[in-house]
Description:
The protein has 212 residues and is mostly helical. The chain is built from 9 helices and no strands. The protein has a single domain, classed as Orthogonal Bundle (MetI-like fold). It is elongated. Helix 1 packs across helix 2, helix 5 (126-140) runs antiparallel to helix 7 and helix 8 (189-196) packs antiparallel against helix 9. The relative contact order is 0.08.
Amino acid sequence: xxxxxxxxxxxxxxxxxxxxxxxxxxxxxxxxxxxxxxxxxxxxxxxxxxxxxxxxxxxxxxxxxxxxxxxxxxxxxxxxxxxxxxxxxxxxxxxxxxxxxxxxxxxxxxxxxxxxxxxxxxxxxxxxxxxxxxxxxxxxxxxxxxxxxxxxxxxxxxxxxxxxxxxxxxxxxxxxxxxxxxxxxxxxxxxxxxxxxxxxxxxxxxxxxxxx
Length: 212
């Protein structure tokens, strides 16, 4: 019993010692990188607001109340109402979900397609690389906002179309950056060994170059 108690006490002391070290590490990071810490805090707050929007928002964000149009901020409507009488604060809270969905989806899809396209262009080289890079140059010649507006004009409005509008201009820029690194990876000995073993191009690109 005494030994068990002593061991339990030692474990508790160890946990107590680890907890301040983690907090101090976070505090050191915040002091050394205040902008990064502030950005991380904003993202965390935004994610929490999006997840718990049903409990935070006091009103339905799409419910019209024409008898309460353009009301100033008050205890009932913290940020006032819009031209249709909708609570502005509730719309901002629920809008965090759409903002996160569009941001994460467009970044993930754009980076994924750009990664595969850039690595494939560097791996095959020759005419394939030349054609792909000229197509990428055409897309990169247009400003981002112009390209996004053109996509919205073609496909229309909506969250899915906004994701497409942001993803399409993002793909060529990501592919161009990835290609520069993939050109060096293509010349490494293990890529030649994979070719000598008869591996397919798809396996070499996806498993040996991208997963390096």
